[in-house]
Design a protein that fits this description.
alpha/beta; Pyruvate-ferredoxin Oxidoreductase, domain 3; Alpha-Beta Plaits; 7-stranded mixed sheet; 11 helices; about 25% helix
Length: about 375
């Protein structure tokens, strides 16, 4: 007897239907082989919000008894495969219940596989992924992240390609024939076949990856809980060294939102007119007023919603750039203030080299147009 477990990590709302389709496909394919399985969601916000990392799970077993035994555990922490349907999640996730930054491979078992939708190289992704301390495998489904919205679904075959790749890297969970059997569309079957043929696993050593220690917070134990409902006030950080004359809104140091974003704003301070609209309209009060009255987005507080870009009246003054282009959350204003020419070169390069945007949708029918224009 054996049990196979798969987790799909996705961006809340934007990829919920995609993640659900993948997990349901796993269960249906398993049933084609006479196994029994269950798909369910866990660890997301309630209500689920745009961009918040969330998870769907699929568990497959040979017998009903084995399935019940596995699901009786509180947390499936030895998944055969972790599927990340957005490669920016490789930097780590902090959802509603994590109380810190969780490495994308934390719940992947030793020797298991991290399967990522991405156009990047394995080495590039490994540089983002936190060291696991145990060996595992990395596999890539070639393609950009598939984003939709609350009421739409981008049916670009990402679900079929993920299932095809899964059959390649974990045939004990679902077989190739079962995956094709459960996909009832010949074009999607072709996509699954292509993903199966092209997907390759790269071994990742225990000491490979990002050596950053993910931030975490101490949680009170039951012995320290007080009677009644007690919500302790949190100190807010407000002072920034060297920013005398500027203004930084008070922020809770433990409330970070940067793992929610797929893109971040890049500001051209040379063309900024200091109109204050980005500062006024930012829904999360991310902008700090600098000593020279510019506006610098705090990258630990920014969730990447793109409102600042939308409301800025100056053409190309604020540009949303894919998160994969950045390695830290440093201040853009400080970089510009220190060396304006160097910042201008960096800004120009990072904007011109970013991949095509796929965050949200611009108009009804956009996805159908994009799919029609994609190469076969």
């Amino acid at each position: 007897m054996s049990t196979g477990s798969v987790e799909v990590v996705y961006r809340g709302i934007f990829q919920k239907t995609l993640a659900r389709n993948i997990c349901r496909g796993i269960v249906f394919a398993a049933r084609k082989e006479g196994k029994i399985g269950l798909a369910f969601g866990r660890y997301s916000d309630s209500p689920e919000r745009n961009g918040i990392p969330a998870k769907q799970f699929a568990v497959v077993s040979d017998t009903e008894e084995e399935l019940e035994e596995y699901l009786s555990r509180y947390e499936p922490d030895n998944n055969d495969v972790t599927i990340a349907v957005d490669d920016t999640l490789c930097k780590g996730v902090e959802s509603w219940a994590w109380y810190g930054l969780q490495p994308i491979n934390k719940l992947t078992r030793e020797g298991g596989t991290l399967l990522v939708t991405s156009t990047r190289s394995p080495n590039s992704l490994i540089s983002d992924i936190h060291r696991k301390g145990k060996p595992y495998n990395l596999a890539i489904v070639k393609g950009t992240a598939s984003f939709s919205g609350l009421w739409v679904y981008k049916d670009d075959h990402t679900d079929a390609r993920a299932l095809g790749a899964l059959a390649k890297v974990a045939p004990h969970v679902v077989s190739y024939d079962a995956v094709l059997d459960v996909i009832d569309d010949s074009v999607k079957q072709a996509s699954a076949k292509k993903a199966y043929d092209q997907t390759e696993m790269v071994p990742v050593g225990a000491d490979q990856g990002n050596d950053e220690v993910p931030f975490s917070f101490d949680k009170p134990g039951w012995k320290t809980m007080e009677e009644g409902l007690v919500i302790r006030g949190m100190e807010r950080e407000q002072e920034v060294a060297g920013w005398e004359g500027g203004y930084v809104p008070g922020r809770n140091a433990t409330f970070k939102k940067y793992t929610t974003r797929t893109m971040r704003p890049v500001v051209n301070f040379d063309t900024c007119t200091k109109c204050k609209i980005c500062w006024l309209q930012c829904p999360d009060t991310c902008f700090d007023i600098t000593p020279d009255d510019h506006f610098d987005a705090n990258m630990e507080a920014c969730c990447g919603c793109g409102v600042c870009e939308a409301v800025c009246p100056v053409k190309d003054c604020i540009t949303m750039v894919n998160e994969q282009a950045f390695t830290d959350n440093g201040s853009q204003w400080e970089m510009w203030h220190k060396d304006k020419e160097k910042y201008s070169e960096w800004m120009t390069e990072i904007i011109s080299n970013q991949p095509a945007r796929s965050h949200g949708f611009h108009h009804v029918g956009q996805y159908a147009e994009e799919i029609a224009n994609e190469p076969s």
